[in-house]
Specification:
The chain has 2 domains: 195 residues, Heat Shock Protein 90; 109 residues, Ribosomal Protein S5, domain 2 (2-Layer Sandwich). Helices cover 29% and strands 25% of the residues. It is built from 13 helices and 17 strands. The protein has an 8-stranded mixed beta sheet. The chain has a 5-stranded mixed beta sheet with strand order 9-10-13-11-12, sandwiched between helices. Strands 14-15 form a two-stranded antiparallel sheet. The longest helix has 18 residues. The structure holds adenosine-5'-diphosphate and magnesium ion (MG).
Length: 418
């Protein structure tokens, strides 16, 4: 008697959900990536109770054809690749066709989508993997997907969830990364009705940095732009006085995808070398663009880790480019002596380290987003961002570090995105 059987689709989806849907933030990540892939210019995310009660993502992208709405929830159903060869030329964020069926296996999902501007669309409702509703509905172009009662049918996973604040921190982190990776898209994040992030869209990365890290931080960022035959680097690197106590402020974005990569982090840290005190990490938003064949994104279920085909060359290029920008800046702190008190008794001398004013005209861009920046600096700052001052604070001593400071494995430090 044969003992090996092929699992039915629902069980397979539940298994995939174990990898793809680790926590509410993973759902946010997958749904937002779908909206980005659909060419949306506006993506709104509303969550309740840390995402466990509700995650709703509304976009103005291409929408889904009525007859494709149900198919989108089938395992390995995707519009993004059609052949094995496409796997080596991925230009979209998604391609595995796993997110929607995985999410629908562990939650109650309602999807409304319209692929044109006739006002007609389709609504689908799925509960724990079974279809409850599939009918026509009035809808604007785009997609509106609500994920309710996440993990309601997987109590063991639900029990594993941390506090609402922790889950919300992870969700904010996902949204910050996506907003940084796509300054051309206007993102909004609301929790129980409160706005936590609002990025303006329009393509100005510095404005997004201001919305997330604060206006002061955005003023201390220096533009980077470099190119060789294979790679193009753009973005902003932070002046050393913006350094933080963990790596949460180091964002690396490859072809529009936020990724984690140890080698890239090390390359950036090598470039800062003696400019940072021990155990301080720079604020950096680095956009790398390359031909899709130079990067393998199919190595991680959540596509958070990637492999580069010419890793040493890439890391060398990043290190040299970052160092060149830092070398071009006046980054040696000046000691400012401040005399305190008046008259003959003025004896107290205070020494402070100041970095010369950044050579950036950051003012006007930053102001529009001041309100959400304040939110980002408050209690909602995700764990990955430490709690380090967001900007302006002079460091307490001369920059110094030992080579060992960056030699330690960076394991789980800082980054919380899943
Ligand atoms: P993948 O993104 O890997 O293709 P998903 O399960 O995330 O797989 O989505 C399945 C398909 O549903 C996508 O390929 C896409 O065609 C469609 N889809 C999902 N979300 C959206 C959206 N917000 N806008 C337009 N199409 C979408
Ligand atoms: Mg997807």
């Amino acid at each position: 008697m044969a003992k090996i059987a092929i699992l039915d689709e629902h069980i397979a989806n539940q298994i995939a959900a174990g990898e793809v849907v680790e926590r509410p933030a993973s759902v946010v990540k997958e749904l937002v990536e779908n909206a980005i892939d659909a060419g949306a210019t506006k993506i709104e995310v509303a969550v309740e109770e840390g995402g466990l009660q509700l995650i709703r993502v509304t976009d103005n992208g291409s929408g889904i054809e009525p007859d494709d709405c149900e198919t989108a929830f089938y395992r390995h159903a995707t519009s993004k690749i059609t052949s094995g060869r496409d796997l080596f030329q991925i230009r979209s964020l998604g391609f595995r066709g796993e997110a929607l069926p995985s999410i629908a296996a562990v939650a109650k999902v309602r999807l409304v989508s319209s692929s044109n501007d006739t006002g007609l669309g389709r609504v689908i409702e799925i509960e724990g993997g079974s279809l409850k509703l599939n009918e026509d509905i009035a809808a604007p172009q785009g997609t509106d997907i609500a994920v309710k009662e996440l993990f309601y049918n997987t109590p063991a996973r639900l029990k594993y969830m941390k506090t609402i604040q922790t889950e919300l921190g992870h969700i904010s982190d996902v949204m910050y990364r996506q907003a940084l990776a796509h300054p051309e898209i206007a993102f909004a994040l609301r929790h129980n009705g409160n706005t936590l992030l609002q990025s303006p869209g329009g393509g100005d990365l510095l404005q997004v940095i201001a919305a997330i890290y604060g206006v002061n931080a955005s003023k201390g960022m220096v533009a980077i732009e470099a190119e060789d035959l294979d790679y193009r680097i753009t973005g902003f690197i932070g002046r050393p006085d913006l350094a933080r106590s963990n790596r949460g402020g180091m964002s690396t974005i490859v072809n529009g995808r936020y990724i984690r990569n140890q080698g890239l982090h090390q390359a950036i840290l090598r470039a800062y070398h003696t400019l940072l005190p021990i155990n301080r990490y720079p604020l950096v938003v680095l956009m790398l663009d390359m031909h899709p064949s130079l990067v393998d994104v199919n190595v991680h279920p959540a596509k958070l880790e990637v492999r580069f085909s010419k890793e040493p060359e890439l890391n060398g290029f990043v290190e040299n480019s970052v160092r060149a920008v830092l070398n071009g800046q006046v980054l040696i702190p000046q000691v400012v002596r401040q005399t305190i008190g008046k008259g003959p008794n003025r004896s107290v001398i205070q020494e402070q380290f100041h970095f010369p004013a950044p050579p950036l005209g950051a003012e006007e861009g930053a102001s529009a987003t001041g309100q959400t920046a304040a939110a980002a600096e408050g209690t909602l700052r995700p764990p990955g961002n430490g709690g380090a001052p967001a900007g302006g604070a002079p460091i307490g001593g001369a920059p110094q570090r030992s080579a060992a400071a960056f030699g330690a494995p960076a394991a789980a430090e800082g980054l919380t995105l899943r």
